[in-house]
Amino acid sequence: MNPIKKLASQTAVYGISQIAGRFINYLLVPLHTALFSTAEYGVNNLMYSYVTFFNVLLTYGMETAFFRYAQKNENSKDVYTTALTSLLGTGFVFAIGITTLSSSIAALAGVGSFPSYITYFAWIIAIDAICSLPFAYLRKEGKALRFALIKNINIFTNILLNLYFLLLCPYIQQTYGMLLPLYEGKVEVGYIFMANLIASLITVPLLAKEFLAIREGTFNKDTWRSLLNYGLPLMFIGFAGMINETLDRVILTFYYEDTQKGLEATGIYGANYKLAILMTLFIQAFRYAAEPFFFNHAAKHDKREIYATVMNWFVLVCLVLFLSVTFYIDVFKYFIADESYWVGLKIVPTLLLANMFLGMYYNFSIWYKLSDQTKKGAVIAMIGAGITIAGNLILIPLFGYEGSAWATLICYFSMAVMCWIQGIKYYPIPYDIWRICKYILIALALFVINQKWLTIDGTAGYVAKGVIIATFIGITATYEFKKGKVV
Prior knowledge:
The protein is mainly alpha-helical. It has helices at 3-26, 28-35, 38-59, 62-72, 76-100, 102-109, 115-140, 144-176, 190-206, 208-212, 221-255, 259-273, 277-296, 303-327, 329-332, 348-364, 366-370, 374-399, 401-426, 433-452, 458-482. The chain has one domain. The protein has 21 helices and no strands. Helix 4 (62-72) runs antiparallel to helix 5 (76-100) and helix 8 (144-176) packs antiparallel against helix 9 (190-206).
């Protein structure tokens, strides 16, 4: 199959399933924002911000290291067994240790009254980290449908349990005076975390076949050292990525002397961040498909041209999503049930662009993964983390949570540029940067036109906006085809 079409089809499989599952999962946002105050929802965002850091810590780059060494090593089964054994050991040690210290950690994390939250997340993080390698195995084998099925069972389980704890249990209690299993009689954010933990536990038996594949290889110390040498710099890259993605919530929460105001700002910011769902889901689906795709094509003679072509189409899809969400933001806003959150809608365009540049950075970053220079990639990521920290500390006092959005955009744009420049030196790929810039400028011009001058209301306005987006798609796609950029 044509390599670009193959990547597109794999992305579509991951994407459709992710969009279906995650979109329904994101429908929990109206439920959560209706049941919980901005401060309570801020606790939810704060806890998940902490989690992302530990997810990176417990996987320590093993997924990408597995892809790289399974492609280089003739005995890929030994690579898989070695990597999975390592993750199993560190995952269980982490979960048991954090559970033992849950009360002390809860106090440090700002949720001292709820040590159970720490226990829930200790096991959520450990299980998800351990399962990451069986999922990577499925991606390497091109089993996108099985990957998507298991992921969506996890997602739908989480959704159903949220409905069980937050809607069914209170209804049964109020109507019949009964308490259903696991429900203690009061709706609180802790049930969101409990639902997540149960969903993670259910994933383990679903991946039994992949876990049992550990018996087909042997643990090899030399391979383990090689995996760590390659993967640990990626862990620092992951840490930097999590700083970029989530530290803004932490800084927002603790910037205000009044903790309640900090949690409210975090809740508004976090809820509106989720309106970038379409961009986020596309980038996630693309990453699932692209990482094994890039490694599998590393030995092809025309690999660099393929990588460049992928970038063109990636940017075009991102720009279409950017225009779609910003043009119809007055529809997407109803995704958030409580109008008190709508004050944060102004940050959505900024965050959409930020995520697009993050996706471009993922594309550019293939140079240090294929040239085994992950340490240089770590330097770029750490600089990006520094930009995020400095940007939030400077801009939050000036603009509140809007400052966090702009800091995110500045960071991801800077990282994409740095990664592109370094790639020219160490692993040159013929990206058509000028063409990409033209596409971005055209999309931004259309965005400004919509914001300033397209004032048609009602159905006529929606149709006019749809025509503009369709025209953008038609012109840019035709231009790509005419230039022979579909390999």
